[in-house]
Amino acid sequence: MPKPEYEFTPTSSVEFAPCNPHIEGLSEAILARNTADDSVTRILRFEPGTDTTPNGALRHDFWEEVFIFEGSFVDQRLGQTFRAGDWATRPPGMEHGPWISAEGAKMFEVRYYQRKGE
């Protein structure tokens, strides 16, 4: 089923839930999901002190576009700090993370799959 149709809705109406796999202090609010291909629009929240190092660097089979709109985190692999206003576009297979967020952060994220032949 494609993502549902919503008119403007306050993000506060969507509850945060722990991410899978679980990382202490990391949670997500799913704004929309396409159950046919699992493409997702979400807000990812890092509580102050969140450390994703135990899960290591990530790679996945979908496109990911992210925009940090609050706070900051340090990319442990790159040794760089990324802050509100920074964004990334990651193709399938691109290595990224892990991160530590001393102050906490929130990101808007869209995940989607490329159709065969595109």
Task: Explain the overall architecture.
Helices cover about 0% and strands about 45% of the residues. The chain has about 120 residues and is mostly beta strands. It has a domain at about 35-110: Jelly Rolls, CATH 2.60.120. Strands 1, 2, 3, 4, 5, 6, 7, 8 and 9 form a 9-stranded antiparallel β-sheet that branches. It comes from Arthrobacter ginkgonis. InterPro entries: ChrR-like_cupin_dom, RmlC-like_jellyroll, RmlC_Cupin_sf. This is ChrR-like cupin domain-containing protein.
The dominant shape is: globular
Could you name the CATH class of the domain at 33-112?
Mainly Beta
Class by SSE composition: mainly beta
Instruction: Give the low-pLDDT segments.
Output: none
CATH superfamily of the domain at 33-112: Jelly Rolls
Q: What is the tally of beta strands?
A: 9
Termini gap: 21 Å
**What is the average per-residue confidence, as pLDDT, rounded to a whole number?**
93
CATH overall fold name of the domain at 33-112? Jelly Rolls
Radius of gyration: 14 Å
**Tally of helical segments:** 0
What is the correct CATH architecture of the domain at 33-112?
Sandwich
Major sheet size, sense and barrel closure: 9 strands, antiparallel
InterPro entries: ChrR-like_cupin_dom (IPR025979), RmlC-like_jellyroll (IPR014710), RmlC_Cupin_sf (IPR011051)
Domain ChrR-like cupin: 11-108
Protein name: ChrR-like cupin domain-containing protein
Pfam family, one: Cupin_7
